Structures are given as structure tokens and as C-alpha cells.
Amino acid sequence: MECVIDTTVLIDFWRQQGRSVVWGQIEQLVGDRVMLLPWIAEAEFLFGAMYKRVDPEIVRAFLAPFVPLPVEHSHVRMVAQVAAELEWIGMRIGWSDLWIAAAALQRRAPVITRNGGHFSRVPGLSVLSYELPR
Length: 134
Prior knowledge:
Elements: E1 2-5, H1 7-15, H2 20-30, E2 34-38, H3 39-51, H4 56-63, E3 67-69, H5 73-88, H6 95-107, E4 111-113, H7 116-119, E5 127-129
Parallel strand pairs: 1-2, 1-4, 2-3, 4-5
């Protein structure tokens, strides 16, 4: 079994390293699923790390446990279809989220995210969301 992780998961893992509350919530949602890392989520995370000039070796080690999910041409049609459907009903989401959603739909896998509101707009997408402790 698999799940597709959103960029929020990476950010929260990074920021909350050593804090078991966030890890525990996400691990409970993930269960025994393999965490797939879409190319767009990796790119968004890498941009933040590069912008903040984080040591590339530290970033590489941090990303190592995640299974890369490269862009597949079949996602292109799915992204366009989902974008059109959401536009028709006035519930647009960002392009990065569309790519993540399309990858999850293609694999029939849930998306793990802290941003459930955006992803829940996508018809047929299974969304498992969590919150940061206050």
C-alpha cells in the first residue's frame, strides 16, 4: 500500500524534528503505507532549503527515506481534467496541489497533508489530514 505526501508533510517533519507529536500523528495516518514523494513536493521543499542555504548533504539525508515519485505523462491529462472540473464548480486549487492530487489519483492512493481543505475539493481523492499541535 502507498500514500502520496504533500509538501506540508516534508515541512512539518523538517520543522518538528525530534517532536514526537507531529511524527506520531503522521505515522498513525500513514500506517504501513510506503510514503511516495511527488516531484513537485520535492521541488517545493528543495527550493525552501536552497533559499535558506541549508547544507545540501543534510537535505539529501533528510529526503532519503521517502520514495521518489517522478512525473508521469499520464498525470498531464489527469491534472488538466481535475483543473477543469474544479474550475467549472469554482473550487480552484494551486497547480502544485493539482500535480500531487493527480499522482495520488493515478495510483489510487491517499494524500497525506496538513492542507486538507484544498485537497478535499478534488473529486474521488482520498485525503488524510492532520494538524499541528497548538
